[in-house]
Amino acid sequence: MLRAVTVDVRPTRPEEFRAVHETIAAALMFPPPTDAEWPTREEGWRSSDTISAWEGGRCVGHAGAFRFDTLVPGGARLDTAGVTRIGVLPSHTRRGLLTEMMRELLAAARGRGASLASLRASEAVIYRRFGFGVAAEAAGVVVRPREAGPVAGAAPGRVRLLRADEVMDVVPPLYDRIRRRVGTLSRPEFLWRGVLRDAVEQQKAAFVAVHEGRAGDPDGYVAYDLAWRPAAHPIRERGGGNVYDLIGADDAVELALWRHLLEIDLVHEWSVRERPVDDPVRFAVANARAYEATPWDEQWVRLLDVERALGSRTYAPAHGRVVVEVHDPVFPANDGAFAVEAAGAARVEDEPDLVATIDGLSAAYLGGTSWRELAAAGRVEARRSGAIEVADVLFAQRPAPFSGTFF
Ligand SMILES: CC(C)(COP(=O)(O)OP(=O)(O)OC[C@H]1O[C@@H](n2cnc3c(N)ncnc32)[C@H](O)[C@@H]1OP(=O)(O)O)[C@@H](O)C(=O)NCCC(=O)NCCS
User: How far is the CA of 324 from the centre of ligand 1 (A)?
Assistant: First the structure.
């Protein structure tokens, strides 16, 4: 791989954050931040790990990571590098810069004790070579309330619209208390400011509604905005809404929040970027076709410490166990065989039943991608008949894994 010798890859210094941000913006086709925007953007830089590439005093590439945790099957929360702000200037692509920055970034994250790395990809062809696999899908959703009909199964209680000045105090702690889906991430404060900005600043018709159960305590919330959607003639304009977050302590609370949305006057269509693929509302409305879902590869995960990651999640009851052998070209310490059974997982010296690449094992880890699919795609080799079926029972996860956090 040919690369200019003058490019220096190293940790970014705080005084360089804005220059690096401008490079990322250029690579991702966004305008550079204005002076007014920069202080808010800078917050996210101060709480992340960052590696940048420099040539002659100019930043030509960057790779960074936020520090999150990921909820894994059984309830453990694993230290996670949230890989972000990946970009190389178009003048410097395909010279191995991302490869070098990614190796440094992942090694640093592993070195500080992160078991997982997680990212949201601009293109699905970039990250498999670095050991990432699609561990959980989400659905982009359009819902048409007038066609949907009533929502069955909603929790009793009431829905209350928060005042703008309550939003930041109520929502983040509520999320921490009620998040239950495998694959959800902890959210640092700067990320919350982004998610809730519209509801706090009121530049748009943006709202947060909380659901309160019989005892009056909040047990779920939905953040959304509303606007008139353009039409050929103004009289034909109709209301539409975007949902950012809809999370309840249980399914019935989520249905109550959906009922709130679907009963809002003037709104003919709701759009949501990320919903779980098994969103209960689809079958709780009278007409399932009023809920149109398009699945996409939401959560790319890479195991950084295979032994710790496998040992930290629980497994479903199954008849038998499987021995999975993995080979990791970046972190040889991950190489080896791991026995997985209902009681847990541990490193062993046994002959393998399944041989997986690191991206294959990472895809299967949360239980969102089946071993069967991976084997059919040639990403996992079965050395014993029946091993795929046992592995799928052990790793299975319902409700489906889902993150709901875009970064
Ligand atoms: C994605 C990006 C950062 C890759 O940087 P890069 O320095 O060109 O990557 P590398 O040179 O290290 O590439 C390593 C390998 O991945 C391949 N690759 C990298 N990006 C690719 C892409 N977007 N499409 C197809 N292949 C890609 C390279 O061809 C190379 O393959 P090889 O090892 O067989 O030669 C860069 O293309 C970019 O900035 N793209 C626009 C912004 C973007 O999409 N960022 C990701 C946000 S999630």
Answer: 30
